[in-house]
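Section 3.1: Structural characterization of target chains.
Under the original work plan, the team committed to producing a structural model for every single-chain target entering the pipeline before any wet-lab resources were allocated. The record below documents one such target. The sequence was received from the expression subgroup and is listed exactly as submitted; it comprises 61 residues.
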Amino acid sequence: FIAMLLKNKLSPQAIRNFHHKIRIFIIKDELLQFSKTNQVISQNVDRLRLVLPFFRKGFFY
């Protein structure tokens, strides 16, 4: 998918749909991880810090 994104072959609607699915997945993932250790949760937060700026800067306004 990322390769397709970089080639600009996806419509804005397809990109928005993908972003929406990613958000839902992240929310479900956070709820599942909530019952685990703080270390696991902090790792997820670090991962989100890397991913979210990419979406904000690149494709979603």
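The chain has one domain: 2-58.
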